[in-house]
């Protein structure tokens, strides 16, 4: 039997109440992403960067996993499943998922850029304390900034390269603007399923065998029927 690889973006968590980068309201509109998410500016904008990420972290504590997060957990319980996500939130983990690859980091953590020590904050604010191990003041959100290398992209490429005919790729809630998952999987023989809220110019939906437009939580039953048919149970 094959395995399932899910690939998700901000649209997965939008129904839980988290603002996406493109939302016209919410946290993102009050800050310039190039000022608070830029590896070349974060030290200059140190307080602003942490103000922004503190707000996102606290907001995360006010929302809960939605039905699609829980469905991902159900897939993991039934099949050999890996969840690759661009999201930095903890909602997949809170839904009970164990096999999660967060390629852009985790917002519930910060780390010292001098010695590498990692600190888990959960949904609390970072209050500008120095590193408890080396004393450095340069504590950074544990997320990938613009202009910063993303080491886990290597893992992403490895997982895509290993896809076989018996496998399923389920893509949920991503425009394809940051990572062109359509092109990456285009030549793979796996069954490919796409669920986005609406069409997007960055996402070539012709690559996919099945395409569902609409809120993710409303498409679970249709997606599950396809997966059960492919997997045989």
What features would you describe in this structure?
There is one protein chain. With 233 residues, this protein is of the alpha/beta class. The chain has two domains: 1-18 and 65-104 and 150-233, Rossmann fold (3-Layer(aba) Sandwich), CATH 3.40.50; 19-62 and 106-143, SIR2/SIRT2 'Small Domain' (2-Layer Sandwich). The chain is built from eight helices and nine strands. The chain has a six-stranded parallel beta sheet, with helices on both faces. Strands 5-4-6 form a three-stranded antiparallel beta sheet, covered by helices on one side.
Which sequence of SSEs, written as H and E, runs from N to C? EHHHHEHEEEEHEHEEH
Give the strand line-up of the largest sheet.
3-2-1-7-8-9
Shape designation:
elongated
Please indicate the percent range of residues in DSSP E strands (runs of 2 or more).
Answer: 15-25%
Number of helices: 8
Specify the biggest β-sheet.
6 strands, parallel
| Tally of domains | 2
């Amino acid at each position: 039997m094959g395995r399932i690889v899910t690939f998700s973006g901000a649209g997965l968590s939008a129904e839980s109440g988290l603002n996406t980068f493109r939302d016209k309201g919410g946290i993102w509109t009050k800050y310039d992403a190039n000022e608070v998410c830029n590896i070349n500016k974060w030290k200059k904008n140190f307080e602003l960067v942490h103000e922004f990420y503190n707000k996102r972290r606290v907001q995360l504590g006010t929302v809960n996993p939605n039905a699609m997060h829980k469905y991902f957990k159900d897939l993991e319980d039934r099949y050999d499943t890996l969840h690759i996500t661009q999201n930095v939130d903890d909602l997949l983990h809170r839904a009970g998922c164990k096999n999660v690859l967060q390629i852009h980091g985790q917002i519930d953590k910060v780390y010292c850029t001098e010695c590498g020590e990692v600190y888990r904050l959960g949904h609390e604010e970072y209050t500008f304390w120095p590193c408890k191990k080396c004393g450095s003041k340069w504590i950074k959100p544990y997320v990938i900034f613009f202009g910063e290398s993303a080491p886990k992209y290597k893992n992403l490429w490895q997982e895509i390269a290993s896809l076989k005919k018996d496998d399923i790729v389920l893509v949920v809630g991503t425009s394809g603007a940051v990572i062109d998952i359509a092109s990456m999987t285009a030549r793979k023989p796996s069954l490919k399923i796409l669920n986005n809220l609406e069409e997007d110019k960055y996402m070539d939906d012709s690559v996919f065998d099945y395409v569902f437009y609409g809120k993710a939580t409303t498409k679970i039953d249709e997606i599950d029927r396809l997966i059960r048919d492919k997997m045989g149970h």
